[in-house]
From TrEMBL:
The protein, known as: Metallo-dependent phosphatase-like protein
Pfam family, one: Metallophos
Domain Calcineurin-like phosphoesterase: start-end pairs: 32-247
Domain of life assignment: Eukaryota
């Protein structure tokens, strides 16, 4: 009897412990986030990266489970696969939630430019995929099949402690909070489009706005890190992920001890066709490349950047 009791006790304790363990890991385990930068009209490489990151299967359907996939804008221009890329992203955006996942496409400066009729980077070949110029004009109008879709996208999003946006969020915008930035975007975009890119009351589409700003990518460290700290404090975030500024060596770059992460690696063949994505799981940062995974997790307990120099950016 005693032996059976002891056995029962051991078994139930193990069961209890493993149940508690399973529950806490389930509750505590952070979501997997995958992000990639500017796609610029290259469907082939985009699919390659989605497959490499486990987000699509061999039939191009969502296989990412509960992963959150954030695309930081500039899907179009330079290359030719505008329609096919938006179709793929829209399809994945429908499929992912059926598996507990989520696809978050954000606006880039090239989306905004096309909506406002600035077609500097549109090629003849790409226009032909719409069936000509007039069809393309219609597609980007507010009731066109791309205009309607793009106008409801957000400028920025925060997942756990990570903020995503196309260019970078200057402290002057970060101070407003992410919801206000998105509200201004949705509020101002129609007037901006109608005026051919002139009416921009909150300067949200301007050169220091979230789609164009390049300070975090180009300004010197450590000075720029003070700006990053300021912006991240306003947004109550740990790090900011952005595209827009091409890393010509094809590698995802971190700055300011992992608080700034640059994911535009020139995915499109126009820029060399580099293949790679960023994975964020909790505080673990990993670059996923064709030839393997590279940890980008910064060392812990780094001192705060302080230079005493104040930049006017
Ligand atoms: C934009 O952000 C809001 C607030 O986070 C969210 O509810 C909405 O679904 C987002 N829209 C898109 C198109 O992702």
């Amino acid at each position: 009897m005693k032996l059976i009791n002891t056995l029962f006790c051991i078994v139930s304790t193990i069961c209890f412990i493993s149940t508690v363990y399973a529950t806490t890991t389930l509750l505590d385990s952070p979501r997997r986030i995958v992000s990639m930068g500017d796609l610029h009209g290259d469907l082939k490489n985009t699919k390659k990266i989605l497959r490499l990151s486990g987000l699509i299967d061999e039939n191009d359907h969502w296989s990412g489970g509960d992963t959150i996939y954030v695309q930081t804008g500039d899907v179009l221009d330079r290359g030719t696969d505008t329609i096919a890329l938006y179709k793929l992203i829209q399809q994945l955006r429908k499929e992912a939630p059926e598996h507990g996942g989520l696809v978050i496409p954000l606006l880039g400066n090239h989306e905004i430019m096309n909506l406002a009729g600035d077609w500097r980077y549109v090629t003849k070949e790409e226009t032909a995929t719409f069936g000509g110029y007039n069809n393309r004009v219609r597609a980007f109008q507010k009731d066109g099949f791309l205009g309607e879709y793009l106008m409801q996208l957000n400028m920025t999003t925060k997942v756990d402690g990570t903020v995503f946006c196309h260019g970078g969020i200057h402290p002057n915008f970060a101070r407003l909070g992410l919801d206000t930035i998105n509200d201004y975007t949705h509020h101002d975009i129609e007037a901006y489009m109608a005026s051919g890119g002139h009416a921009d009351p909150h300067k949200i589409f301007g050169d220091k706005g979230p789609t164009w700003y390049r300070g975090y990518a180009l300004a010197d460290e450590p000075n720029i890190c003070e700006f990053a700290d300021k912006a991240l404090t306003y947004m109550k975030a740990e790090r900011m992920v952005m595209g827009h500024t091409v890393q010509r060596d094809g590698e995802i770059r971190t700055r300011c001890n992992g608080k700034i992460i640059l994911v535009d690696i020139g995915i499109s063949w126009v820029y060399g066709g580099y293949v790679g994505a960023l994975e964020v799981v909790g505080d673990e940062l990993t670059a996923i490349y064709e030839n393997g995974r590279v940890s980008l997790t910064p060392p812990k307990n780094q001192p705060k950047a302080f230079s005493g120099v104040h930049l006017e950016l």
